[in-house]
Amino acid sequence: MTAPHVESDQVRTLFSRAMSEMYRAEVPQYGTLVELVDDTNRETLQRHNELRASLERSGDLDRLGVERHGAIRLGSAEELFNSRRVFAVMGMYPVGYYDLSVANVPVHATAFRPIADEALRRNPFRVFTSLLRLELIEDEALRSEAARILAARRIFTPRALELVGIFETEGGLTRQQAEEFVHEALETFRWHGDAKVSLDVYQKLHDAHRLIADVVSFKGPHINHLTPRTLDIDAVQAAMPKRGVTPKAVIEGPPRRNCAILLRQTSFKALDEPIIFTQANAGTHTARFGEIEQRGVALTPKGRALYDKLLGSVRRHVGAEGIGPNAGDYGAELAERFKAFPDDWAELRAQGLAFFRYSATPAGIEASKRRALPSTVDGLIAGGFLHADPIVYEDFLPVSAAGIFQSNLGTDEQQNYTGRSNRAAFEAALGAEVHDEFAMYAQAEQTSLEQALVRLGSPHVARKAIA
Ligand code: OOG
Ligand code: NI
Questions:
Q1: Maximum pairwise Cα distance, the chain
Q2: Is 90 exceeded by the pLDDT of residue 329?
Q3: How remote is the CA of residue 341 from the centroid of ligand 2, in Å?
Q4: Residues 390, 391, 395, CA angle at the centre, nearest 5°?
Q5: Ligand 1 binding pocket includes 130 (Cβ within 6 Å)
Q6: pLDDT at 467
Q7: Whose CA is nearest to atom 6 of ligand 1?
Q8: Residue 300 — very low, low, confident or very high, per pLDDT cuts 50/70/90?
């Protein structure tokens, strides 16, 4: 008899754990950040019993220390294609298309992440994966040199790809194969202090854009950050300097609110690390950092449009990334302008700004056996028969991502890429379409509502509410 297959969720957990250990050993400052996050989470939980209880109910308490995401930057279509196959072994699929050229970063990206609610609950680890857009390098000689260098490298070990092949034909890996796969896959994300190019070529690439040097000069796409979840991002941001860690100027995303929306994130500045270039020249490279995130409710397209509008107005007024003459005002301006965004769960739902997961309450199920219940969703909620919980946003934000890129690439980038988004080329390289995150949240909301209404013996309300 052949050995049984391990679940993809399990492989993802083995992988994220191995990655975390490797990164802590490679970047000691990241270990310091993780300790600070753990301490802050503990203090926050001591002060907020209700938060503790809700994390306990959702089963999140014991997974608080698990990293939420990491990021890599790839150089070619083939690398992206094989990354998709590798991440599929871990139950991670491409969700969303992010065009960063609009923010002067010459990449486009997706996030490989679990999709099913249960898979996200077990281990939400995801990898923001960007692909360099060589066509945005203007200097033709440099562009073809970069393409030549990239075409010659192999970022996955032969054995890793062999195991991916086995996964694809057999539909899974045995425990032993999974462990070997994790070990082999980790090689792709490892740091290499020895560059594959000369100092001279590195400098030319660097002058074109720091990011291009980061992608092209090395043997593989070293993981450039990992990101644990914090329960109080403002507290961690404020405490970083006391632990000898320098945070970026501002927290990306929405301001602090009662009803958290989307995603807030901040990072510490990337480190200068010693590099040995070919011909034994020594130099440094700045790429790797640590980040933290705090997630809120997923917004509907209408909510997202409002978010984008308000954020855009802040950035036009104060300046992007909170640098420049009005930098100090960024937080105050953000808070002020976001007063226009309802900060009350009932209001967010009533105005169709956010996605919710519906459930029948025990009282509702009981009452439905004895009498007819109200015939509208709002009536059922008002009567305490139906409950709506916010759906957590599991994706990324292009403006925030650009801010994270920028702060870790230095702020002196002058390039202005004409923002031609090229999703079709990205998907062709990927060998698949990316999943539409809005459609997924909408589906989750609708399914939960239908199921809840069936439990309340009121399926007709579902048709009315959704039609
Ligand atoms: C990725 C930056 C994007 C985030 O959290 O928005 C990102 C990178 O720097 O390669 O990870
Ligand atoms: Ni990140």
A1: 83
A2: no
A3: 25
A4: 135
A5: yes
A6: 35
A7: 401
A8: very high
Q: Which of 23, 26, 113 is nearest to 68 (CA)?
A: 113
State how beta strands 194-198 and 386-390 pair: unpaired
CB 73 less than 6 A from any atom of ligand 1: yes
pLDDT for res 39: 95
How is residue 223 written in tokens? 């993981």
Q: Is 289 in the pocket of ligand 1 (CB under 6 A)?
A: no
Which residue's CA lies nearest to atom 1 of ligand 1? 71
pLDDT-derived band at 356 (thresholds 50, 70, 90) equals very high
Ion ligand 2: residue ranges with CB closer than 5 A: 227, 291
| Ligand 1 center to 228 CA (angstroms) | 13
**CA distance to 76, 152, 216, 337, 397, per residue, from 308 (Å):** 31, 41, 33, 12, 10
| CA of 292 relative to ligand 1 center, distance in Å | 11
- List, in sequence order, every residue forming a beta bridge with 69; answer none if it has no partner: 126, 227
Please report the atom of ligand 1 found closest to the CA of residue 73. 10
As a whole number of angstroms, the distance between CA 325 and CA 397 comes to: 25
Please give the pLDDT value at position 263: 97
Please state the rounded mean pLDDT for residues 75-79: 97
Residue 168 CB neighbour total at 10 angstroms: 12
Within 115-158, strands assigned E span 126-132
Structure token pair of residue 313: 């107005």
Average pLDDT, the chain: 91
The top-scoring range by mean pLDDT among 117-121, 331-335, 439-443 is: 439-443
Domain 5-296 fold is: 2,3-Dihydroxybiphenyl 1,2-Dioxygenase; domain 1 (3.10.180)
pLDDT at 462 (0 to 100): 59
Q: At residue 246, what is the residue type?
A: T
- For 80, residues 6+ apart whose C-beta sits below 8 A from its C-beta are 74, 129, 131, 426, 429, 430
Q: Is the pTM of this model over 0.85?
A: yes
For the chain, the domains span 5-296
Q: Does the C-beta of 71 come closer than 6 Å to ligand 1? A: yes
Q: Does pLDDT of 194 surpass 80? A: yes
